Amino acid sequence: MAGPGRRGPKRSEEARVAILEAAARRVMTDGYDHLTMEGVATEAKVGKQTIYRWWPSRSALVADCLAERLLLPELFVPDDSGDLHADVTRWLDNIVGFLNAPGNAGLLHSLVVAAAENPDVAAILNDRLGLWEMLDERFTQAVTAGQLPPTTPVPELGDALIGAIVLRGLRNGDLGPTFTQGLVQLLLPPRET
Amino acid sequence: MAGPGRRGPKRSEEARVAILEAAARRVMTDGYDHLTMEGVATEAKVGKQTIYRWWPSRSALVADCLAERLLLPELFVPDDSGDLHADVTRWLDNIVGFLNAPGNAGLLHSLVVAAAENPDVAAILNDRLGLWEMLDERFTQAVTAGQLPPTTPVPELGDALIGAIVLRGLRNGDLGPTFTQGLVQLLLPPRET
Amino acid sequence: MAGPGRRGPKRSEEARVAILEAAARRVMTDGYDHLTMEGVATEAKVGKQTIYRWWPSRSALVADCLAERLLLPELFVPDDSGDLHADVTRWLDNIVGFLNAPGNAGLLHSLVVAAAENPDVAAILNDRLGLWEMLDERFTQAVTAGQLPPTTPVPELGDALIGAIVLRGLRNGDLGPTFTQGLVQLLLPPRET
Amino acid sequence: MAGPGRRGPKRSEEARVAILEAAARRVMTDGYDHLTMEGVATEAKVGKQTIYRWWPSRSALVADCLAERLLLPELFVPDDSGDLHADVTRWLDNIVGFLNAPGNAGLLHSLVVAAAENPDVAAILNDRLGLWEMLDERFTQAVTAGQLPPTTPVPELGDALIGAIVLRGLRNGDLGPTFTQGLVQLLLPPRET
DNA sequence: AAATAAACGAGACGGTACGTCAGGTCTTAGA
DNA sequence: TCTAAGACCTGACGTACCGTCTCGTTTATTT
């Protein structure tokens, strides 16, 4: 967009940040479906056109918020302590703990809606957030280490894990220890003791 | 709403059906997020008030469409042939086949959005559609029959199965045989040969 | 627009009047070029769409204000006392007095702009206001009565009279007795005494 | 361009002319009310600031276009052949011919609007264009020569003449020979035969 | 039968937000 | 230091729908 030998003023970093922060704040408080461009513009003290100049839609705005870690600040990297059960359990507890935190009640709903409405958001959630990537890595490592059978369908394992969480979350179902332990027991081979 | 000794005309079944069909058509063609009450009213040749008289919101409308099987006509009942692998594989192929069908491209997205925005829709998808219920039943039966270990966390198994499908669908990812076979292999114990 | 056997609610006279009055007020205070649809809507406590439903543009709004005598309440009918000089002088003084009145400073400018931008406004000023028509009538009568030569080009006489006033007004020039007397002397044959 | 011993570039004559020509072109084609600063800047390949540096408003731009004869190239100087009727008739025909020329349809409207909205434009039209001045001169000469009575209110005569034209033009009325002849007959004393 | 009342189609109403256009100011890089 | 480019905040544009509220018509019960 901005060539190297471009004339004119540079994009205002101040405005950019103010917009993203306002958008993230609105999503957290009111949910994605009550997010409006005008609301963001007002809250960010910015002209509407400044938003539309750089983002084509509110979902693109949310995608950028995600990319800048303004909505999901934590990375949820699974540990690699050698104990797969423990690592996955801890990872699950982290995520579930985050989703159960007071302010994050509607966040999952918002992100799912945003992702369903805009492939870019889905892509960001996929790639930039790295949930799948990190799980794949950890599970591939587990296969190498013999903690998982070599025939394990790693991608499906990730989908099943995250999918179960999302589904439960959408239904406002139980996201407690019963759930996480059930998942671990279901998806990981019995711990050899 | 309509007392026994009520005066005046009865609720018009014609209008009711026209509205639901128009709504279902719109969701199928344009997606849930482009569904508008005015659009439905126009397409159903009905006054807006007639919609608002009976449904409080567009998501309630979609919930009713679901309940009337106008959006998901099939029931996806898992077989019980005694061969769990085969039954689950067939069930998965049915669902995936439906989702991959030409007209149903955006349907999953629409339903997820509707469910995320309105708990009633989520409840309908849960209860009335009976996906979880039927899976639970089949898996419980499998536990009884010794096809699954008695410790199997049945609810989580259902969530993992459906969750993986939904997640893949949302990302427009591969919903082919590799995926379904991977899921079966992952979630069911190895077939005893 | 509204057929005779139309169902539905009737057009709200309250809203119609509020809009016209707000528009007229704005034109009087701020001038036609600062007239905005949003301003009118706000001042009339009306939705914007209610304005656009009935008037296609702000000039149409002004045209209607004129037609309803909200901007030019007086009719400026020339007398017919038999004394043409006196009658025309009185008519001129009326008009000039109106234009010179405190609140009406920018009105002429506004109306000229509105008329130049929208033929409908021009037509209203022509026909409904009846300036030309009344002058034509008076002058035709004068021709009949022998107060004007039979060859008098009556339409041009009206244009010259009104045109001179408009031109002076636009330039914020002198609109005093010198001007009116000059016009009378110029355009009417010398008084026979 | 830059004189010797001068620091920094002088005002770009190229830019100035390009701006004025673009503005004049826009007024001729789209009319004054569709004239935009951004449009002129784009068409003149000039930064907006370069316009605002030298002209405070679009009406000032139009005023300058007038002053540079980019909009009204002709001067409309009345002849002084000794025959007042002929001279005025010729002058009227010139003006009317210009206004009736194909490309000049909306020009009168545009100029009237610009003049009504901005006194500077009105002043330019008054002074620089010299319509009134030249008419005054010619009529004063006519008075001296005895072609007009000594009591003729010369300024009002000019206003009546030009005002009639403007009014007719605004109403898109007839600007043909009937009109011009009528005006001459009305405003000038009968030709002495 | 007449009166009554609800449901219907139509659509006007006050609003909110949309996405765009232009205004006028300010900033940057190039000549 | 003037220019071309263009980002910025502001505000109005005209449109799409929202959910509510009349209208006048059409049924279906009571009285």
UniProtKB/TrEMBL annotation, chains A, B, C, D:
<dbReference type="Pfam" id="PF00440">
    <property type="entry name" value="TetR_N"/>
</dbReference>
<dbReference type="GO" id="GO:0003700">
    <property type="term" value="F:DNA-binding transcription factor activity"/>
</dbReference>
<dbReference type="InterPro" id="IPR050109">
    <property type="entry name" value="HTH-type_TetR-like_transc_reg"/>
</dbReference>
<protein>
    <recommendedName>
        <fullName>HTH tetR-type domain-containing protein</fullName>
    </recommendedName>
</protein>
<feature type="domain" description="HTH tetR-type">
    <location>
        <begin position="13"/>
        <end position="73"/>
    </location>
</feature>
<feature type="DNA-binding region" description="H-T-H motif">
    <location>
        <begin position="36"/>
        <end position="55"/>
    </location>
</feature>
<dbReference type="InterPro" id="IPR036271">
    <property type="entry name" value="Tet_transcr_reg_TetR-rel_C_sf"/>
</dbReference>
<dbReference type="GO" id="GO:0000976">
    <property type="term" value="F:transcription cis-regulatory region binding"/>
</dbReference>
<dbReference type="Pfam" id="PF16859">
    <property type="entry name" value="TetR_C_11"/>
</dbReference>
<dbReference type="InterPro" id="IPR001647">
    <property type="entry name" value="HTH_TetR"/>
</dbReference>
<dbReference type="InterPro" id="IPR011075">
    <property type="entry name" value="TetR_C"/>
</dbReference>
<keyword id="KW-0805">Transcription regulation</keyword>
<keyword id="KW-0804">Transcription</keyword>
<keyword id="KW-0238">DNA-binding</keyword>
<dbReference type="InterPro" id="IPR009057">
    <property type="entry name" value="Homeodomain-like_sf"/>
</dbReference>
